[in-house]
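It would be a great kindness if you could assist me with a short task in structural biology. A protein sequence and the structure tokens that stand for its backbone fold form the material at issue. I should value your view on which stretches of the chain appear to form regular backbone elements. The record follows directly beneath this note.
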Amino acid sequence: MRLHMAWIVVCVATAFAVASAAAEASPNLDSVRRIIDAVNSKDADKYASVFAEDAVVQMYAGAVRVRGRAQLRENRAQHFRRFPNTRSEIQHLVEIGTTVVMHDRVWLHATDQQPADIVEIFTFKDDLIIKVEVIQPEGLLSRGSSGNQSVGSETTPPASSLPSRTPPRPALPQASQH
């Protein structure tokens, strides 16, 4: 029985390793990783390079915020000037056909103690991103570049007073003992 169980574990681990290796070789996943590299190096040209000329960026099920690679490049350059300490870490990447879904954590300021969780849904065509839908906390970008609140209709308290955006994980059921 133990040998049979060990064989199953080896087969499952091999299957995951093969699937993982295949996912790592994906041009679409590589493009999304390049975006995160561009965010962390504050390189608007590198960021925009994986987008189609007519790409659109919008809030999930909302209005288009950016239209076209040139506008996106300028938008990212302004963002990097406003938030020079921005950094991002990929938490999860999933590719299904021509769509990549990314969950990342973003810190806008060096003083941020808690990151913001963001989900982005990328649609690809001919190895370029043609559409991004963004899900992010309301008011995330309303704070000024120093980490203080900016003037505007949205206000966000300092990061140190925000509760963690990571929900607690539910307890896993205990395995029955036979």
